[in-house]
Write a structure and sequence with these properties.
single chain; mainly alpha
Length: 96
């Protein structure tokens, strides 16, 4: 049971980090025509991806634009992605 709780905590850390980065990026929009704008977008989406993916899936599910299976598949991918980001953030925090 302890291992499940640790995994859920790490996943939560990853989703929280993803949400913070996604919201910061929305506050400071960069144009893709600027030098390095497209590269910055992709670098930010590596971290902000789970939050954006889950948000888009939830909106599509509410509008009935996708099936329940597609929503839960997107949620599972976002959760796994959050777990990877969370492990990285926890390791980084422990190293400091």
């Amino acid at each position: 049971m302890h291992d499940v709780m640790v995994a859920l905590f790490i996943m939560t850390v990853g989703m929280t980090t993803s949400g913070i980065i996604a919201n910061l990026y929305r506050l400071i929009p960069l144009k893709s025509k600027e030098p390095g704008g497209r590269a910055t977008y992709f670098a930010v989406m590596v971290v902000a991806g789970p939050s954006v993916l889950f948000d888009n899936a939830a909106q599509a599910c509410r509008k009935k634009e996708c099936s329940q299976i597609a929503f839960w598949l997107a949620a599972a991918v976002a959760a796994y992605w959050s777990l990877a980001i969370g492990m990285f953030v926890i390791e980084l925090a422990l190293a400091l």
